[in-house]
Amino acid sequence: MQIMKYNKYIDRWFEIVENQEIKTCEEQKQMVAWLKNKLNTEDIIINHEEIEKAIITKEKWFDYPLLDWEKFLDACEYGLYYKDGSLVFNEFFIMGGRGFGKNGYISTEIFYQTTKQHGINNYDIDIIATSEDQAKTSFIDVHDMIEAKPRLNKAYSITLEEIKNKTTKSSIKYNTSNSKTKDGRRPGHVFFDEIHAYEDYKNIDVHTSGGGKKKNFRVTYITTDGDIRDGVIDDYKKEAKDVFSGVIKNTRTLYFICKLDNEEEAKNPNNWIKANPSLNEFKDLMNTMLDEWQKAQTRPSKYHTFMTKRMNIPHQDETTVVAKWEDIVATNQVIPELKNQSCIGGLDYASVRDFCGVGLLFKKDGKKIWLTQTFINRNSPHLSLVKKEVLEEADTKGEIIWINTPTIPPELVANWFIEKMTLYNIIAIAIDKVKANYFIEAFKKVGLTLRTTSNKSGEIVVVRSGEFTDTMVYGVLEDWFANHNLIFGDSTLMRWYVNNTAVEPRKNGNKAFIKIEQQSRKNDGFMALTHATSIQSELEEATTIDENYLMKYMKTY
Known about the structure:
CATH class of the largest domain: Alpha Beta
CATH architecture of the largest domain: 2-Layer Sandwich
CATH topology of the largest domain: Nucleotidyltransferase, domain 5
Radius of gyration: 28 Å
Strand order of the largest sheet: 5-6-7-4-8-9-3-10
Helix content: 25-40%
Number of helices: 19
Shape: elongated
Oligomer: single chain
Strand content: 15-25%
Low-confidence stretches: 546-557
Structural class: alpha/beta
């Protein structure tokens, strides 16, 4: 008989992962090692009775046994306390492949927490999702289960809007993430379903601001992966890495992540259980996934969905994105010393009432460095649509020059380049033909002369607009991104600009860069880079002199 070390359900999941009884991803292995260390080194009390109460109650009323991963999460949620009585975990981030049973798990959770067995009166539950149908899924499961059981029917009052335990007064409601009201509730537990769709925390804040006033307030995020990058889900995945690696020391969030370790693993169906720990129990699901995989081999959109939703490996269609997200992230490299070095300027704007991106392109030691800044008009009619967190983060890094005039004054932009000329040798400034007229007079006033691409004597270069230039630079930029030779430094705006841009193939074989969304997803800084890149052949490569090597060389002579 095996001796229990922590709790039998926690021990069992540790055993499954460590012995690889089912294949699990690196994040599961890291989570187990991290949690073991936490249980061994922190003053944690395990309440086995509370754990059993939760699992027994759930299985009794739902008429099916919970899976090992569900029992493990229940043990971590209901059984782990610090000596002061506070929860070890009051937030749960749970990511599993589509079909792993997240709504079934939510259903058991929201029901149990309204019962006498849970033991907290007025413990209200809110389920939040991006659509009403999604938000109602678990709610309806519980509604129908209660309706079908006479004993529960007496204990609850149920409508299609609210489920309420008559004794505990705890209720369950659902809502959509874009709801402007919270009904004045002070919830005990808020469940967010499919947070991969959240670009920012605005709606999360709306629905959690009333929390913390109830005993054992909890928040649970349960999701597959999705297509929005640099949003809420990417924040949580990054935090998980930082927690497991020890960068973040103190947290009350449990990160339970199930995914493939890489895209290549999808070719072997035996690996799919890494993303879906329920797969051995759901035989029909396996057959469905095998059918989906076959169709995905010839249908790019289905491959994208299969990898992103089933395997939790975000997949971008490489025929439409400018660069893979990991290649965009790889632009965050240290910017070398560039003072007095030659460069090419670039400039672009969509509207003189909105954003204007400027930048300088350097070549040094095999790398291409893009130093950028953005003028943003506070009076822009679209500013409220732009992701607030992006602007706030970029502003703290000095990436934004705010202006309050009706339009962006061309003189300000011209003077930006004049100021940079005191630091660098700007051999040319590229701007596309359509946008040039607005700036040319202002540039001339500060001494910048106009030339065509065939004349080497001037400084302002008017380049062709649209797909001609886009096609010309597409392959160059593709190479720079793929080989991680393009450096932005830690530029929030440039990562955002690039991720907002898609490549649209034309019937004649040309390429055109387009914004993914016209008003909220700007790409002015990226387009400024494309203009500079279109004349990058004029720029000579700079090299760093290795002084140690030079001294050694001189001593030999």
